[in-house]
Amino acid sequence: MKFSNSAALAFAATAIAAPSTPTLQEKPREVQAGCASAVTLDASTNVWKKYTLHANKFYRTEVEAAVAAISDSSLAAKAAKVANVGSFLWLDSIENIGKLEPALEDVPCDHILGLVIYDLPGRDCAAKASNGELAVGELSRYKTEYIDAIVKILKAHPKTAFALVIEPDSLPNLVTNSDLQTCKDSASGYRDGVAYALRNLNLPNVVMYIDAGHGGWLGWDANLKPGAQELAKAYKAAGSPKQVRGIATNVAGWNQWDLTPGEFSKASDAKYNKCQNEKLYLDNFGPALKSAGMPNHAIVDTGRNGVSGLRQEWGNWCNVNGAGFGVRPTSSTGHDLADAFVWVKPGGESDGTSDSSATRYDSFCGKSDAYQPSPEAGSWNQDYFEMLVKNAKPSF
Ligand code: BGC
Description:
Glucanase, alpha/beta, about 400 residues, Beta_cellobiohydrolase_sf
């Protein structure tokens, strides 16, 4: 997974600061699964006002193992609290669909299970770190073995609420990286695949957010309209599904919510980007989505954006060194279009390997502002996790 944007990357920059009203989620784990009757999510409303993002058992298990490996008792006590924070579960391969049923076993009626749909053919076309299992051309496998299999499970669990982030980076890459042969090759599969996912996952117990990159990506003046049109095209190709609420921004990202002036606003190209923080991105991209004809509410990933000023360039996306956990999931955002701050990227899981001899090595993961050594994308990095805990803002 990565945020690249060759065109826009040439420029670069953003901003941010911690939102004003952080809400800690430290409810004890409950063991009952789902509600007494079928769940109906009204995607014309903010479902996060009613549902709490569930602290899924996979991340909880990773965190608990990490805590056990920490000898400093005060750090361990802080780290233990991370296990109670809600975060999304990534279904990043056909095999990992196997995580879904175990993960929904302990979701109480007032919680919502967050899932990331992430397995398009030719995945991560502008980078290497998260290249996936399906090759360009394997769209029928994506449909039948991946999406259909997930749909079947979600249908079998109508009493549980689900929030889905749809295919991080895919459509944004088609907007800004269409000059790359890999993205050209992936384009039709991305468009068809996302539309298929939206159409088929449109179930009453599901609310969907299509990934829209971040302010330093589609927020450039030249990218706002084409970006909104690309997303709206997929939404309409899917038949304008009722359960689509809007977009997910800053997924696995580092941008601040409302830091003013923005983190990169002194850059020489800053005049070409009005979205110097994620709040400004919603202010600008939201109306563009509306004119393009799609719903424009958003969830924003604040999982790892506790510290600003770490990146040398806005487009640096891999294992940013010095990062800290950000604001805990909450629906108190103070912004009409922002439904919730959520943790999408499970902090501690790597963005990509720093081993330059690995097949999926991406040079962004070897940059001087990237934490090294780092393991393969998705694998646990204990040292990085401990750093996120130490640098968390608000602190644990
Ligand atoms: C990786 C996935 C992983 C996800 C969450 C992505 O960068 O490619 O395998 O599940 O991050 O850590």
